[in-house]
Automatic annotation (TrEMBL):
It comes from the Bacteria. PROSITE patterns: PROKAR_LIPOPROTEIN. Keywords: Signal. Residues 53-245 form the SGNH hydrolase-type esterase domain. Residues 1-21 form the signal peptide. CDD domains: SGNH_hydrolase_YpmR_like. InterPro entries: Ester_Hydrolysis_Enzymes (IPR051532), SGNH_hydro (IPR013830), SGNH_hydro_sf (IPR036514). This is Lysophospholipase L1-like esterase. It comes from Rossellomorea pakistanensis.
């Protein structure tokens, strides 16, 4: 378009007998001013719409402020980015939800509408699937029982991702891994950590099969921490510090390389200084 404008002006100059060089310089200056007046897209902050969905870790059980677990921490961090004006979270966490229950809830119109408008969908799921298997086999815990349960879990996780993407193919999806809360009571059962590792490996592989997705691993954070990260009333859910560290891990993953931009379909470009080394 601009080349056509320059050609048109040159033609008019020739007709009028004016100096081509002088007039061309004038046109180029006008075009340069026009370019400078339109700042790069990443300099214009935008609202980031996030749907948080899943189990008690999304609901925020164990959060003493009852403000949504990891959400307020992650919200503050996201809003510190120059590309984001406001991070708007909608929380659909329900304590005790397994993958089969989440699949049913995804059919609710209100949730559909929220996902349709979202830039990002963050999911916490899987812990209660493990818990169900754990309870059903507590008298005779064997890895085979969990491996069998993982087959159905994998199918349901695929359906969850596919359903979300059918509602909004442009929304990024972030799946948070599970951790081992059973070690407090059953520290002598070494296989439990291996079960969690395999469960997370499966979740990471499944979500990695889809575009605009990311997996955030948190198991090692809980396993290797010298500080207590669990809620003292049940030693199962994260406490305030646990949720804060989860948010820190999520924020680090989202701001690495071009992750947030890739997840949101090139809507939120980060400055180089905002990307962790």
């Amino acid at each position: 378009m601009r080349k056509a404008m320059i050609s048109l002006f040159t033609f008019l100059i020739l007709l009028s007998g004016c100096s081509v060089d002088n007039m061309t310089q004038h046109v180029m200056k006008e075009l340069e001013l026009d370019i400078k007046s339109d700042p790069p897209e990443n300099f214009i902050p935008k609202d980031l719409k996030v749907v948080s969905i899943g189990d008690s870790l999304t609901q925020g059980v164990g959060d003493s402020t009852k403000s949504g677990g990891y959400i307020p921490y992650l919200q503050t961090q996201l809003e510190s980015l120059k590309a984001i004006k406001e991070a708007k979270f909608t929380n659909y966490g329900v304590r005790g939800n397994r993958t089969d229950q989440l699949l049913k809830r995804l059919n609710k119109e209100k949730i559909k509408e929220s996902i349709d408008e979202a830039d990002l969908v963050i999911i916490t799921i899987g812990g209660n699937d493990v818990m169900k298997t754990f309870k059903e086999n507590i008298s005779n815990l064997k890895i085979q029982a969990f491996e069998s349960a993982m087959v159905d879990y994998e199918k349901r996780l695929h359906h969850i991702i596919q359903k979300i993407q059918s509602y909004n193919p442009n929304a990024g999806i972030v799946l948070i891994g599970i951790y081992n809360p059973f070690s407090t009571w059953f520290s002598d059962i070494k296989e439990l950590n291996q079960i969690i590792v395999e469960w997370n490996t499966l979740s990471s592989r499944v979500i990695g099969e889809y575009n605009q997705t990311e997996f955030v691993e948190v198991q090692n954070m809980f396993l290797n921490s010298e500080r207590n990260l669990l809620f003292e009333e049940d030693y199962f859910h994260p406490n305030d510090l646990g949720y804060e560290l989860m948010a820190n891990r999520m924020f680090k993953i989202l701001t690495q390389r071009e992750t947030l931009n890739e997840l949101t379909n090139n809507q939120f470009l980060l400055k180089e200084e905002e990307q962790p080394s």
